[in-house]
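Hello Y.,

Per our agreement to keep a running log of every chain we model this quarter, I'm adding this entry. I've kept the format consistent with earlier entries: sequence first, then predicted structure.
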Amino acid sequence: MDQTPEKLPSEPPERSNVREEDDSLGPDSGDPALPSHVAGSGALDRLVETARDYARQAVSENTLTAYAKDWAHFSRWCRMRGADPLPPSPQLIGLYIANLAAPAGRAPALSVSSIERRLSGLAWGYAQRGEKLDRKDRHIASVLAGIRRKHARPPVQKEAILPEDLRDMLATLRHDLRGLRDRAILLIGFAGGLRRSEIVSLDHGRDDTPDSGGWVEELEDGVLITLRGKTGWREVEIARGSSNQTCPVHALTQWLHYAQIDFGPLFVAVSRTGLKATGERLSDKHVARLIKMCAREAGLRPDLPEAEGIRLFSGHSLRAGLASSAEIDERYVQKQLGHASAEMTRRYQRRRDRFRVNLTKAAGL
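Predicted structure for the entry above:
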């Protein structure tokens, strides 16, 4: 039977302004190793491999991929101008970030946050090569301060998907295997306040796969999700809803039953015929495409041109929707989203929900 995974309609793939060249590090670059004056042995060599495995887990795979691309872009930029990226030159990096903010030609200018991310990538790249980048050097800090002053603007927040929006989006899905899966993704993502990467990293059980980011446990009153976060493991409780049509627990159990999933990745691709679930874990891009597709089909933000309205929605729209709509003590929302501070949680509460708490009246005015 044909089990080729399906592809959702999506916006055109992002294209880099320059072709990335191979500036990847060797397998042992920057990794833990034995000191040169210590003789190797079987036991020590095994410890070295163990230490390398732990070191690779210190930063997420997506972050490492982004940092590697940042270094490749900078290296090519240097070579095109007859310069060498090594050793680190604050003057050269100051010119580089100025070019990112005000490029010549057709290349788009990067936002302040993107430039700061590039600097983080360069710092990582130098560290892997035994060098240190001083971002506080005046040649870098003064240029970056000027870029912030001239170009900084409030971040563009994605639209929150509220419960009524979510119901409309669910209504656009078919009642087949693919629809069962996508319905479970949307409801679990919303009720759990999960990131798109967290949704697709889930396994059915603990330690089912090496690349697992967590697992689920079906309990009488709901589902308990255990997630691997940046600071350790955290638990997310998803209780049953008021009706099967919008219950995330019901949607998940229906998908698992009909897809016959009892081991491995929780959300996998469906064969082209739509009759069978494959063992291939979905990527986080599937969640983003799914949200945009359903938002378009549901006609969300009809006040805007379709393309402009769809751009307002992303994977974060589910988390923002939960934070904006849950009529409950803020600390419970903070815990569900895994935020270290209430201030971070408040950033997810969108404009349409402002002034829900009227402190002016509460103060007696």
